[in-house]
Amino acid sequence: MFSKSPNNSFFSFLLMTLSLVIFLMVYSSLVMGQQKPRVIISSDIGGTDPDDFQSMIHYLMYADRFNTEGLIASPYGGGRKEDITKMIDLYEEDYPKLKARSKDFPSPDFLRSIAKQGAVDRVPLKGWREPTEGSEWIVECAKRQIDAPLWVLVWGGLEDLVQALHDAPEISDKLRVYWIAGPNKKWGADTYQYLVSHFPELWIIETNATYRGWFVDNKRPDHTNVNRFYKAHIQGRGAMGRDFINYYNGEIKMGDTPSVAYLLDGNPENPNGESWGGRFVPLNYSSRRTFERNTSLADTVPVFALVEWVYQGPTLDTISESPCFWLEISGQQFEGYYEGRGRYRVRFVPKSAGNWSYETSSEIEVLDGLKGEFVSRDPWPGSQNEQDFKQLTNWWSDDPDPQNFVGDHQGAKTIFRWQDQFLNDWAKRWEWLE
What we know:
With 434 residues, this protein is an alpha/beta fold. The protein contains 13 helices and 16 strands.
């Protein structure tokens, strides 16, 4: 009987092992290459700013690059889920031409099935209210047994994200969040306070100003001018192109699109790397300033800091989730609440550097007509203060390096430097709809 020598057996075993290792490496590479980000978008589409319609058109034109799991309408204003399905209707008209270019574009019916209604009102002082269809959908998607993080791209307020985390805190480590903050943070100060206080370990990019690099117009002749982009590339192309003129007369704004661009280019697990969606630095603390008095121009806070005023007033029998006084700044009103023990609190976030003045109004006499001023200064988050939210572990935010400012927009150059590349890439997709 023939038997292999020990050397032959060892050589065969080594060859088989090496072949298996190579196969696994190739297979892993293929799988990783095919894996697309899991995405939920939470948008204030149809609310107070029409730029979300532009951003939704952009997202749908790149929908083949993502595993879209949810489209949530969570507006400040009159918008609803129907504003999302309206955009899907336009997408449906263009779908045959998009599908001819990539089989990975999701069907319009599928997208309609994952469109959900989110919160339509701001939360009370405690930072959360009650579950919505949108918040419950975030929880459901996050709990799926899929070995990949769930990206939640927040284009408006944090209400549905925070509600999901409040109801199911165990999903925190399943999430990756890219939040277009800035003005949205101003309107969601109470929600932000809850999030940063209770989930300092959440993986989140908080861009207060970097996102502005997406639509900063560049007048140099060797760059794409965003004000000319509509006529050069969008006009006359498809149903989505036909609709685009209805928002800012076709001028590119799309302030929420950097969240999408971040996943299209670069390594999204490395916020400090280069990306169309910006480059960010670790945020170890988040600025907060609390005053138990009216402020004056002698009081300076960092821009984008959470500012609180706490006033003394009559002791009430119950704590209500309804506001009992208002803080008016720049013609806008922000709700103040009774928190117990004769204390009344209101929160605000300055969205830009400058001087601010305010006045309160209330049916409670001692809270009516209080006036004050304060100053906000770049950069965010400013010098550390004992009142700050501390021990943030996976938070990222705008680069404070002066070289990366565009005007007074902190970090915006980390997006602006790629403006030609991402606009030219998008222009190629518009050609698909000719």
